[in-house]
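Data card: per-record layout.
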Amino acid sequence: MTRTTVDSCDQPGCDQPGCDQPGCDQPGLRSLEAAREALLARARCRVEVETCALGMAAGRVLARDVHSAVDVPPAANSAMDGYAVRTADLTAAGDIWLPVSQRIPAGQAPQPLAPGSAARIFTGAEIPPGADAVVAQERTLAEEGRVRLPAGIEPQLNIRPRGQDIHRGERILPAGSRLSPVALGVLASAGIAEVEVYRPLRVALLSTGDELVEPGQPLAPGQIYNSNRYLLQGLLHGMGMEVVDLGAVADTPQATESALRRAAAEADLILTTGGVSVGEEDHVKAAIERLGTLDLWKVNIKPGKPFAAGDVAGVPLYGLPGNPGSALVTFALLAKPCLLAAQGARVDAPFSVPVRAGFARSRVISRDEFVRVSCDQQGVAHLHAGQSSGVLSSLLLSNGLVRIPGGSAVERGQPLDFYPLATLLQ
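The structure for this 426-residue chain is written out next.
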């Protein structure tokens, strides 16, 4: 006999104990944090180390700590165009005229500063021995081989000290860092020409559903275009990973098992969309259980409850729901951290900031809900109308998600956690 269910566990036919909801025979759903913790506890790096030229390393993940072999900058240099001086040669009473004894452009080694003289110097040029300050040219007057300098110049004015940015022996980046353009620039500033990185993770991507049609093809009645394939391809490529694209898979047990076996043979990790709910045409969950193990199924979030995780022939698999809104949320919050761990990358907790609700909602559900919003410059989150898990286009108008805790209504002005899309998906 199937009992009436509540919102947090609304699929009949559960066969696992542990439900804490009254009047329901389905297990209590795993919280987002508990699911993420359990998944990451099993995740491990699955790729080898290789050496990569710095110019080709954008987006790659460091396999070893990187330390600097030099000070950056390697010598004290000028922060201004002006005149290098010895402050002891200046007076406290007023301006003083000094002869200009040398000219030092950037890239030229200076001579020691002659006592009682000034050196014309340019931004980035090395400070001559004996000088302890640079007077900006706007504060000086130059004529006929000499320069007028003001009083009140303090030692070290406008001088960038040796090692101001990085000290020799200092760790620049730890293993697990993903190499951004800024990281590449910092490594280059330390003279590093190549780095040890992990090879790109190979991710097999497949979508299930007889209703799926590729863009550019005509739609028959009952069919839709396969948006998840292109959404996830873009996300994976953006993470620097290699996609093994297995396309759409027919809704049969045989086709599903065949696709999963191929995915396990060709990739380091498997990512699927669709087929993880409880319908008669949802075959991914059952196929995982036949070919490997199912470690997690269903999470206490909306959208994205029917998320699945396990392995096929020892290869990790993360099964996202078929609705594109659900696929994106579960990818960002659950699959992405595991993908990063498999790539050897450092995994941080999802970044969020407190905002104020620019909307009110009396409806209460028992799951934590992630809704699409636009957060303005005053820190107010405005709700979008298109919140259905089957709607993707409202994400084009959103800059993040806010989390509505399960069992809570929302009052206007109430504080909520805001997760910027830019950090969720990068």
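Known properties of this structure: Confidence is low (pLDDT under 50) at residues 1-27. The radius of gyration is 30 Å.

See the next section for split statistics.
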